[in-house]
Amino acid sequence: MNLSGMQIFKYLPAAKKAEHTNCKTCGFSTCMAFAIKLAQNQTTFDKCPYMPDELKAVCQKNMKVPQKTVKIGDATVGGENVLYRHEKTFVNKTAIGVILDCNSPDFEQKLERIKEFEITRVNEVMKVDFVITKNGAVDGTILYEDFEKLPLIKLQDDDVTLEKLIEIRKKAVVERDEEFSNPVCVFMKSDEKTCARAALYLCKYANALVFEDFDESLFATLMTLRQNIFTDPQKPLQVEPKVYEFNNPDENSICFMTTNFALTYYAVAAELENLHIPSYLIVVPSDGMSVLTAWSAEKFTAKIVKKTLEKFDFKNRVKTRKIIIPGLLSEMKEELEQELDGFEIIVGTIDAYAISDFVKAM
User: Fold this and answer.
1) Closest CA to 12 of 3, 285, 335, 183
2) Eight-class DSSP state of 222
3) 276-295: pLDDT as tens digits
4) For the chain, first and last CA: distance in Å?
5) CATH number of the domain residue 346 falls in
6) String of b and e for 78-88 (b: at least 16 CB within 10 Å)?
7) How distant is the alpha carbon of residue 200 from its chain centre?
8) Are 247 and 222 part of one and the same domain?
């Protein structure tokens, strides 16, 4: 198990008021300082000659790598050290690959489709991570014989169960069992439930999925799910702060404003696109926070808005002197109007889906 600084400290001489309390042999001024640094992996347990054997055993176990990191072509898999994303974060996303037979009559066609496949979502461009080739070598692909040599736990779709995948991850991460430290690769079979099973394996806990058939819609679905699972919970998804244009706006077009939280942006952007009315969306930098969170954390202030408009010379780009802000920011109306000389601030809707009716009412 991983121990916190306080849990480690309880084993040390200072906590027990024993001999050698705060002796500085470890190189730190106190036992507490040593315990904190040890918990943060910034020192090693052997620096303290008075550490009890029980604590040494735990530290030795924690020094083992939970899961190895392996390269599959250009993709990196494994390296995970937690069971649940919210504990810290997942490290390397599940790689999605295809295995092709060079002797297949449609080989060239399939390979070209794979090369051309690409989706973009929340500023991330996603492609097939690797291609394995049988009966021949092709630039940019992995020979099947080389793939077989990689240190992976290889499982067949027919033999995989959720319980087995969970057991392997627990053995690796919790028990630090070296027999289970290699990343897990599942070879998928194709049928009407492939997507459901692949989604399950992606969430719990396959490090790579290999398909014999290439299906654009299937891969797009899995990559979208993967992006949601493998985001860092401590780093909100964000879009680039700038002035976005919809339906070819001009100097007289309607203007909206929001934060650069990705989910907020895409919800609003979809509505503005569907309005079929020329419009601008001013996206203010807010560390990827949602509207209310950014305002309460002072990441969305009148001064920040002013700097954003000045950066993009917005005042000279439009004759429009009205900006619609999210309904949750109604308290900022007067403050914004004082800071943004010459602009009228209109309090808009709380929910994005209501934008269309709001605009019609205007």
Assistant:
1) 3
2) H
3) 899 999 999 999 889 999 99
4) 60
5) 3.40.50.11600
6) bbbbbeeeeee
7) 18
8) no
